[in-house]
User: Fold this.
Amino acid sequence: MSKMKLSILDQSIVGRSITPTQAIQNTATMVKLADELGYTRFWISEHHNMRVVAGSTPEVLLAHLGGESKRIRIGSGGIMLPNHSALKVAENFKMLEALFPGRIDLGIGRAPGGDRLAAYLLNPSNQFSEQDFLMQLKELEGYFTNSKELGTVHEKVLASPVVETMPEQWMLTSSGGSGRIAAKLGMAFSFAHFINPNGGPDAADDYRRLFNPSQNLAVPKVNFSIFGFCSEDLETVERWKTEFSYRMLRIEMGMDGKLPSYDEIRATKFTPEQQMRINYNLGRMVAGAPAEMKQKLTLLADAYKTDEVMLATFSEDFNDTKKSFELLAEVFKLK
Assistant:
């Protein structure tokens, strides 16, 4: 295994004292810090009709993040392709590539990034069909390569601007189905361990076995994303696990409103079903002191047979979030 690379998935999460505007501003602050610390890439998410997540338009925010950073790759984690036309996605990301050549990642997801009503309003023709998704991917590739293939839409339509380089394309998945699509099309593969803690290494192995080289990617490329938090203070670690576990449970239960205080969460009596879900969700995250985090993340990376881990970190105290990434950069010697 080569030297470990760390990346960041930032979801612009709204907190107790963090407004949606502040959440977006925190994302901009984080990309600067990640750039300075030596992180490999910085991805942002697309969510809709979720009050706890302010990030809804990665293609817009990325234009700002590119100007706030110098070296780090920036991208979508991901663009939910069925919500959009392939032409518009191609134009957006070719424009980003023109602005920040060699630094743009296009992470593509098939899920709606929200509820079905929001997905319908974004794209009323969305049938949630795998065949439609595959067609979109084929169209997207044609737009990126400036194809003029006869008998296709590309014969008459060119996605502008025409640029010399292409975004690096990643397929996002939390199961394995989209991983097989990534293998067939010769795309990079990113497993959302933070959504599904089971089956990721097997899905990565399946992707490698089926991988078909493309003009964009000659050999398989894998990373995985997981919720994570690092602190030298073990009480801060336990507080983070308690608060974040409760936050995830509330989202899954469809609960809205202000998050209770830490003491109120600790005093909460959970039903057996709720406690089972909390225990399950612990598998979607890693937390601990720097040395412990290094060991846990290295073991996970070994299981996925990859040298890149992507971390999604949110703390109610933004200073704790920044400190977590600083400690991890130090213990993994990113610079």
Remarks:
- The beta strands are 5-10, 41-44, 73-80, 104-109, 168-173, 188-192, 222-230, 285-288, 308-312.
- The longest helix spans residues 234-253.
